[in-house]
Amino acid sequence: MSKSLVSGLLMMGLCVVAVISAGCRGDRGASSDKPRVALIMKSLANEFFKTMEEGARAHQKANADKYDLIVNGMKNEQDLAEQIGLVNQMIAQRVDAIVIAPANSKALVPVCKTARDAGIVVVNIDNKFDAGVLTKRKIKIPFVGPDNRQGARLAGEYLATKLSAGDEVGIIKGKLDAFNGVQRKLGFEDAMKAAGMKIVSSQHGDWEQDPATKVAAGMIVQNPGLKALLCANDSMAMGAVVALGSVDKQGKVLVIGYDNISAIQKLIKEGKVLCTVDQHADRIAITGIQCALEIIETKTVPDDKQTPVDLIKLDDLK
């Protein structure tokens, strides 16, 4: 074998070792002394999660000496496979922590357990993991987020001041198996039952505008006496507004949302939406990241951390 060939093979071997070593380090490069935190959200088409991302990036910029941040989001709220794939990517990159707003309270638990088993800190934000599935998997993952039932109840109680006992209302829910959607539905029901309203329909709008437009249109046709639509997020509230406009019922059927995105604020000012709920997406992300860094430093899992919710109505936007 020639010396040049031997030299070439040695060089190739060194390159392979270098690639393998870089992969095992998660390709951290110069920032290997700082923990890497991955924020995995739901659909970035939803302004709520854009606000969450902006809050996280601002916090990291202010704490650039303490940690590095990787931000990921789904293209479609319903694409569970994509979000599971994002978690697997972060496991492969050997990040130090994953802060996740799961699209499904049950389906994302197994892959997050895989992350935990790989030594990665996992913090659950926004949409709480199902307690039964966590118990079955014998895993504890701290939750950071608001009391969704309380927030929905605040909006429902304000709506009730504009209605009369016995009025008919409809609820447009989030996705099936989403803990936050279930809790918001319960909060709406708490307020409506306490005020003596009649809930004539409760259907899933899948968190998105177009499906909610179709659901709202059906409710309006089937219940001509409908006085209000209680929507579990602002995207679906926007869908309800579209449906009402198509049948010339804007102003005749009140609409409430949840999330306080800028588009809904505009509709509140125009009188097309009565109110919404601000659950402070930026604070949820920041508190989740802080929780992850705390776990990395102390090696202990803290209790759940509750973040605030606030009712937002016209007077609050002036």
Question: Helix and strand layout, with pairings?
Answer:
Layout lengths: L2 H22 L11 E8 L3 H16 L5 E7 L5 H13 L4 E4 L8 H9 L3 E5 L5 H6 L6 E4 L1 H13 L7 E6 L5 H17 L2 E7 L4 H14 L3 E6 L2 H13 L7 E3 L5 H8 L5 E4 L2 H18 L6 E3 L2 E4 H4 L1
Parallel strand pairs: 1-2, 1-3, 3-4, 4-5, 5-11, 6-7, 6-8, 8-9
Antiparallel strand pairs: 10-12
Helix pairs in contact: 2-11, 3-4, 6-7, 8-9
Question: What does this entry look like structurally?
Answer:
By secondary structure, the protein is α/β, with parallel strands linked by helices. The protein folds into two domains: 30-145 and 282-307, Response regulator (Rossmann fold, 3-Layer(aba) Sandwich); 148-278, Response regulator (Rossmann fold). It is 48% helix and 19% strand. It has helices spanning 3-24, 47-62, 80-92, 109-117, 131-136, 148-160, 179-195, 209-222, 234-246, 262-269, 281-298, 314-317, and strands at 36-43, 68-74, 97-100, 121-125, 143-146, 168-173, 198-204, 226-231, 254-256, 275-278, 305-307, 310-313. A six-stranded parallel sheet has the order 2-1-3-4-5-11, with helices on both faces. The chain has a four-stranded parallel sheet with strand order 7-6-8-9, sandwiched between helices. Helix 8 (209-222) crosses helix 9 (234-246). The longest helix is centred in the first third of the chain and has 22 residues, at 3-24. The protein is elongated and about 60 Å long. The model is unreliable at 1-31 (pLDDT under 50).
